Amino acid sequence: MMVYVLLQCQGFETSDFTGDIDGEYQQIMDCNSLLLEVEDETITTHNMIRDRYQTRFPELSSLVPQPLDYASVVKRINNTEDLAGVDLTDILPPRTILAVSVAASLTNSRPLPEEVLETTIAACVCLIALDSAKEKLLQFLESKMGQISPNLSAVVGSPVAAKLIGAAGGLEALANMPACNVQLLGARRNNLEGFSSATTQNRVGYLEQTKIVQITPPCYTNRACRVLASKSTLAARLDFSGGDPSGNTGRKLREEIRSKIDKWQVLPPAKRIQALPVPRFETKRRRGGRRLRKMKERYAVTEMRKLAYRMQFGVPEETSLGDGLGFGYGMLGQAGCGKLRVTVAQSSLAAKLRA
């Protein structure tokens, strides 16, 4: 099956098209079906390589989860015991190379037999060839996206549109897919090799490769991907129904997404300092009655308090500590101020309060 798929991909040439729209769309569907076959064969080949190479290096499958990288590493390592002399810088990042080297020095493994090793290396070569065939198919899809799905290409770009259609299994499958699943197309498991995940970002698939998401600040990336996935689904349904071949609707959807992201980044208006309201000096009209009269009598200013608040011009007042210190008595006890008379009502009210 793998050889048949490779022969199909090798015999696929973009110059064989006549320019017919229906014929090109059929070729697009054939490309999508070929992409699905390539994906299935890639998974099957990767599982076969992993099962056979487990005896030699069991920890490698967890350190290098991607099929293409795993096949390239297996082809480069072979039965080598010491990985210090094996150059993996063009395949893996530095921290993954360090993790692979440490795991290889601590693992308990045995070399593969010569026949099993030859079969495994041949499978790695076939998997690498499958990946190159997949890239060839994706390049053709990118060149034809403007005619097959103009609105989707206007929203996410031709390369991402080709990858979305290829991962979904066709334009019809992409149009019938909900937006939450479109957001996860092409997502990969993030392998941290035991490092902290505090500074890592969630992988959101092919949509993160669009220019809109790349120029968006990291704090708004997830929201932008959700909006982009929903608009991409609308554009794919519009392309599948043939509603707008010119792609103007897709460009409008792209402008809506950019305007939303711009609004998210606008700072809120500064809080203005408002002046206090003008106080109301007029007294509020209140209903009279016995209760109000009693309250006025209770809080009324007595004659003694009036004299204590009053001072006579040119006459020093007496204080509780003397020499102007302490609480002042005002005109209380001064000659010529008159007698302080306490009415019966006031004395009865004071007695009532003391009780």
UniProtKB/TrEMBL annotation:
<dbReference type="GO" id="GO:0005687">
    <property type="term" value="C:U4 snRNP"/>
</dbReference>
<dbReference type="GO" id="GO:0071011">
    <property type="term" value="C:precatalytic spliceosome"/>
</dbReference>
<dbReference type="Pfam" id="PF01798">
    <property type="entry name" value="Nop"/>
</dbReference>
<dbReference type="InterPro" id="IPR027105">
    <property type="entry name" value="Prp31"/>
</dbReference>
<keyword id="KW-0508">mRNA splicing</keyword>
<comment type="similarity">
    <text>Belongs to the PRP31 family.</text>
</comment>
<protein>
    <submittedName>
        <fullName>U4/U6-U5 snRNP complex subunit prp31</fullName>
    </submittedName>
</protein>
<dbReference type="Pfam" id="PF09785">
    <property type="entry name" value="Prp31_C"/>
</dbReference>
<dbReference type="InterPro" id="IPR036070">
    <property type="entry name" value="Nop_dom_sf"/>
</dbReference>
<keyword id="KW-0694">RNA-binding</keyword>
<dbReference type="GO" id="GO:0000244">
    <property type="term" value="P:spliceosomal tri-snRNP complex assembly"/>
</dbReference>
<dbReference type="InterPro" id="IPR042239">
    <property type="entry name" value="Nop_C"/>
</dbReference>
<dbReference type="InterPro" id="IPR019175">
    <property type="entry name" value="Prp31_C"/>
</dbReference>
<dbReference type="GO" id="GO:0046540">
    <property type="term" value="C:U4/U6 x U5 tri-snRNP complex"/>
</dbReference>
<dbReference type="InterPro" id="IPR002687">
    <property type="entry name" value="Nop_dom"/>
</dbReference>
<dbReference type="InterPro" id="IPR012976">
    <property type="entry name" value="NOSIC"/>
</dbReference>
<dbReference type="GO" id="GO:0003723">
    <property type="term" value="F:RNA binding"/>
</dbReference>
<keyword id="KW-0747">Spliceosome</keyword>
<keyword id="KW-0507">mRNA processing</keyword>
<keyword id="KW-0539">Nucleus</keyword>
<feature type="domain" description="Nop">
    <location>
        <begin position="148"/>
        <end position="266"/>
    </location>
</feature>
<keyword id="KW-0687">Ribonucleoprotein</keyword>
